[in-house]
Automatic annotation (TrEMBL):
Major subcellular site: membrane
Keywords: Cell membrane, Membrane, Signal, Transmembrane, Transmembrane helix
Transmembrane segments: 203-225, 230-247, 253-274, 301-323, 329-354, 393-412, 548-567, 579-599, 619-640, 661-679
Family, per entry: Belongs to the resistance-nodulation-cell division (RND) (TC 2.A.6) family. MmpL subfamily.
Protein name per its UniProtKB record: MMPL family transporter
Location of region: Disordered: 103-140, 741-794
Subcellular location: Cell membrane
Signal peptide span: 1-29
Lineage, top ranks: Bacteria, Bacillati, Actinomycetota, Actinomycetes, Kitasatosporales
Species of origin: Streptomyces milbemycinicus
Membrane-topology annotation of the record: Multi-pass membrane protein
Domain called SSD: residue spans: 222-352
Extent of Low complexity compositional bias: 121-135, 776-794
Pfam families from the UniProt entry: MMPL
Domain of life: Bacteria
Length: 794
């Protein structure tokens, strides 16, 4: 690391130019090739996946994105059948149909509705819904005040340009008038209305982090360095994820998720290095030497911490789900590039700004009084002493806090989250509510039944199926069967009585699959598959839940092995695993309370309550385990260093907590600010991640790492550092500590600062610590204990 830092410092302008060139080059390539994101939750082998495949092959007209224009007349303004409303909306629909990318617009007013059942998966009713005037009565509500038209695009929603979709939205909504409300819903419309607010949340998060850094450093130049490093690393990764979408399945929220994680960890990693660099400057080191030592010490910790985050994220690959594979690789790529920027671009920038990493007051003090030793005392030391005096009481308080926050997790329900959960001000939410009010709650999430027909008996059985389905409890309406052009595939659209995200709709799907459809086809070879929004999410959730234990086991196991190798202890990784599970459970509790129970969700602009996305647990477990490992490493490494020096557990825990709590808390405040800002993204999924991660970091930093972990380590005593002799000899040795003997600390800083603690440290050696009876300190340097609790030979 020292050699890398030295090279970057000597060639600082080359390093800066290379990073900027990489940033610009990847961004240009991404802009030229365009994005290719996909929200295909289909899992091969499931009913919903078979429905999607058959629909794409046998009913190609539905391959493009299908959105809905909804209009509603006020009670005192007549119905949608009125002549003036009919003429006004017919002209508006014709204007929309002439726009680029629009294949067709199918409405209720005297249009050719012969193919209406195949134009929209939401049509329901009998085989014929057209009255004598040519009006499609199925597209007009029973009270006559709500109607809808289907807009079919020539491409899927993920491939539509924002400007193209927004032009359709603006044209349709321009038809609104006094007493006439016009709204739009659908996947393409939903994606278009979120883009602007997403970038606003990024800007707010970065601005909040800049304020925290400036307050911590007192130097504008030093505060901007972590921001600049993170922005370059995350920006390069953001564009790279766009290119990645052409090579593998990447969800459309993956770039935002990567940005959320990358900004948080990138700013924090740079914070650790800049803080250590400032310590070196205050100790009288030249700029280049201070930067070199900062990268050689804290930089090693950053690499180790980044590796644990990437490992946790890539743990999603064990699930073997293409949808999550892209998310895992995209997020890991972002973390990797932020780490690379922290250990290469940051030292170049530190060399560029020179002594301005210190504030003017600090530079004047250094010039007037010379280098000074690091400060002792303060709140961190008093807090550390309090934890030592009251470990049982404080541990009990921490456990109660965690349990209370984790209780809502017991009611976690994975399922459909749709545009009915959008904020009340969104056009998609208003369109959803108008359709639900006019046509029933289930109208927004119809089920698609697709059957494979091999002979005449199959055709007869499938033709009788609509009448059978109309008598099933929970079914609101059923369309007539539609045969594909090949004649061997047919479909039926079923509208449930309950909303798509309702548990009753999921129970209807299960009842159709397990009971109704097998009985209807028991005397034939007919096979009918159930697809649609709710069915697809239920299939995805079932597979995820089934594989979740394996995934958690892999992530926890790999993290524990890393800690075992780093700290030569059984107790440290066991406590870390328990703390990580606690942080995950508590953060899920917060997410459930806000998004599933609806506590304040509308107030925060996050829409109405609903179930939690099926993939959220997997992704959040990956991210949270990685971030929790960071703080565990930063805290315990300093304790481990002091334990090896003094062999006194009380001293090790006290000094380690006092010297690391400040930087952990500062880093946590930055992460919380960045993550919380993403609540403003306008995307429910990203808001879930933002709130969940912010809650987990707050709990991890302020309760677990600075309260529960040190309290438990005081209670366990020397058992914290126990490792069987045979295991100690068998395990390979890795080190995340620096500096080495060949790279001594400055003379005015006799107790080497830990590799993982860039905070202003306490000086433990001049201060007498109470030593418990029976504990021993080494009488000479050569008598110090070797790792694993065994004394080294002189």
């Amino acid at each position: 690391m020292a050699a890398l830092a030295r090279w970057c410092l000597r060639r600082r302008f080359v390093v800066i130019a290379l990073w900027l060139a990489a940033f610009a080059g990847v961004a240009v390539a991404a802009a030229v090739t365009g994005s290719a994101y996909s929200n295909d939750y289909g899992i091969p082998g499931t009913d919903s996946a078979r429905v999607s495949e058959l629909m794409e092959r046998e009913f190609p007209r539905q391959a493009g994105d299908s959105d809905t224009i909804v209009w509603h007349t006020a009670r005192d303004a007549g119905t949608v059948r009125a002549v003036d409303v009919r003429q006004h909306m017919t002209a508006a629909l014709e204007r929309v149909e002439r726009l680029p990318g629009v294949v067709s617009v199918t409405g209720p007013y005297g249009r050719d509705n012969a193919d209406s059942d195949t134009d929209s998966g939401t049509d329901s009713g009998t085989d014929s819904g057209t009255d004598s005037s040519g009006t499609d009565t199925r597209r007009i509500s029973a009270d006559g005040h709500t109607a809808y038209a289907t807009v079919l695009f020539d491409r899927p929603a993920s491939e539509l340009g924002e400007s193209q979709v927004r032009q359709v939205l603006d044209t349709a909504r321009a038809a609104a008038a006094d007493g006439l409300e016009v709204e739009m819903g659908g996947a393409g419309i939903g994606a278009a209305q979120q883009t602007g607010s997403a970038h606003l949340s990024e800007a707010i998060g970065v601005a909040a982090a800049a304020v925290v850094l400036f307050l911590a450093f007192g130097s504008l130049a030093a505060a901007l360095l972590p921001i600049a490093t993170a922005v370059v690393g995350v920006g390069t990764a953001y564009a790279g994820v766009g290119l990645l979408g052409h090579a593998m399945t990447v969800a459309d929220f993956a770039p935002m998720l990567g940005t959320l994680i990358g900004l948080g960890v990138g700013i924090d990693y740079a914070l650790f290095i800049v803080t250590r660099h400032r310590q070196g400057l205050k100790a009288g080191l030249p700029v280049d030497e201070a930067a070199r030592r900062a990268v050689a010490t804290s930089g090693r910790a950053v690499i180790f911490a980044g590796a644990t985050v990437c490992m946790a994220l890539l743990g999603m690959l064990v699930l073997r789900l293409s949808f999550l594979n892209g998310v895992a690789v995209a997020a890991a790529l972002t973390v990797l590039l932020t780490v690379a920027a922290s250990v290469t671009l940051l030292p170049a920038l530190l060399g560029l700004i020179g002594p301005r990493a210190l504030s003017r007051r600090e530079r004047r003090r250094l010039a007037a009084h010379g280098p000074r030793t690091r400060a002792r005392g303060g709140f961190a030391a008093r807090w550390s002493a309090l934890v030592e005096r009251r470990p049982k009481l404080l541990a009990a308080v921490a456990v109660v806090v965690v349990l209370v926050l984790a209780l809502p997790t017991l009611s976690l329900r994975l399922g459909t989250s749709d545009q009915g959960n959008d904020p009340a001000s969104a056009t998609t939410r208003r369109a959803y509510d108008l359709l639900a009010e006019g046509f029933g709650p289930g109208f927004n999430g119809p089920l698609t039944l697709v059957g494979r027909i091999d002979d005449a008996a199959d055709r007869v059985a499938f033709g009788e199926l609509p009448e059978t389905l109309r008598g099933i409890e929970g079914v609101a309406s059923v369309s007539g069967s539609v045969l594909s052009t090949s004649g061997d595939t047919a479909l039926i659209t079923v509208v449930p009585e309950a909303a798509p995200q309702s548990r009753a709709t999921s129970e209807l799907v299960a009842r159709l699959r397990d009971d109704v459809l097998p009985k209807a086809a028991e005397a034939t070879s007919l096979k009918v598959y159930v697809g649609g929004l709710t069915a697809g999410y239920d299939d995805f959730a079932r597979v995820i839940v089934g594989k979740l234990p394996l995934f958690v086991g892999v992530v926890v196991g790999l993290g524990s092995v890393l800690l075992l190798l780093a700290f030569r202890s059984i107790g440290v990784p066991v406590k870390a695993a328990v703390m990580n599970v606690a942080a995950v459970a508590a953060s899920f509790g917060v997410v459930v309370a806000i998004f599933q129970w609806g506590w304040g969700s509308e107030l925060l602009g996050l829409g109405r309550a609903g179930p939690i996305e099926p993939f959220l647990p997997v992704i959040m477990v990956s991210v949270l385990f990685g971030l929790s490992m960071d703080y565990q490493v930063f805290l315990v490494s300093r304790m481990y260093e002091e334990w090896r020096r003094t062999r006194d557990n009380r001293v090790a825990v006290r000094v380690g907590l006092a010297e690391t709590s400040r930087v952990i808390n500062s880093a946590a405040v930055i992460m919380i600010a960045v993550f919380s800002a993403f609540v403003l993204s306008g995307d429910r999924i990203i808001a879930m991640f933002g709130i969940g991660l912010a809650a987990a970091v707050a709990l991890d930093a302020f309760v677990l790492r600075t309260l529960l972990v040190p309290a438990l380590m005081h209670l366990l005593g020397g058992a914290n550092w126990w490792l069987p002799r045979r295991l100690d000899r068998w395990l390979p040795r890795i080190s995340i500590e620096a500096p080495s003997p060949a790279d001594p600390a400055p003379a005015l800083d006799p107790a080497p600062a830990p590799a993982l603690d860039p905070a202003p440290a306490l000086e433990p050696s001049p201060v007498p610590h109470p030593r418990p009876s029976g504990s021993r300190a080494p009488t000479a340097p050569h008598a110090a204990a070797a790792p694993g609790g065994h004394r080294a030979a002189p």
